[in-house]
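We emphasize that the prediction below concerns an isolated chain of 353 residues; any contacts that depend on oligomerization or on bound cofactors are therefore not represented. The input was used exactly as deposited, without trimming of termini.
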Amino acid sequence: MRRVSLIGLVSVFVLVTLLVGWELNQRSVRSAGSSDADTIPPLYLRSRIALPGVYGRMDHYGLDTKRDVLMVSALGNNTVEVISNWKRVHTITGLEHPQGTLYVQGVDRIVVSSQSGKVRFYDAESYKLLKTLDFGDDADTDNLRYDPAAKRIYVGFGEDQTGAIGVIDPSTMEHLKDFKLGSHTESFQLEKNGPRIFANLPDQESFGVIDRKTGAVTKWKIPGIAKNHSLALDEAGHRLFTAELAPPGGLTVVDTESGRVVAHLPCVMGVDDVWFDAPRKRIYAPGSGFIDVFQQVDPDHYNAIAHVPVGAGAGSTSLLLPESRTTEGTLYMSWPNMLPQGGSEVLLFYVGD
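Result of the prediction step, given as a token string:
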């Protein structure tokens, strides 16, 4: 009798597990989305983008809108992985646990934040390092946002009393000023048609509300959000959405005019990025092995419409890209350390109507 190697059996088992998981994912998405088999589900898997050799936790995404290039902060791998046409085309190295990646139009630069407290600027065409800003030892520079009207970059950084949002000029690459918050902001969102920044401050069980014209900071106490790291904004509907990273999991909806909690729903745990799909009035909450989808009935009422299985180990970081004239709406989700040959994946889901 021919002996079968243990490695061979493990490889076959992993392959079968992935194929079965993919099929179960498709069946479950169809059943969760609608009882009609011909109806497009709210999310469906379109492609898997392999990142061989990339290990460890993966963090936030960015998008080079000029070149249609996706950028993934591979925190545990100390790299930023650059993806074009559903394949990796470049790797930015020499980073210390990168957390946020941002493309700045106009100056054509990529900005990367790291746990070490560094914010680095790269030429978006050549990936040449242009400048490094140092926010201090272990300053934990994290989420990045860009205000194209004011031409300013905002970065969350600091711990405990040093927690703040810093303001950077992307043209001069200079650190201009800070808005002090008193603890680390795990996520924040900018109003497009107003002056406010909403910052999630789980250590204070609060949202910080910053007027970026006057610098005034107020805080709304939101009991029960000590485990919430994510934040999304429905600016037209005056609502904020935040979901829990740690058990038991839950989605909280807050009125941006009053700070009042208007809804709380069960949700998958492990959510680090939550997204509001304005055209469809939906919320996507990718978490630990699943993506929960909620439909907004009106600003105060929401229904859970899908609990999409992805697979054990699928990560909490993600990116929602709205549809355009040439592309469908897409949701990218990280799956660290799952390739049989070693490495990670990025899953690409299309958003259905």
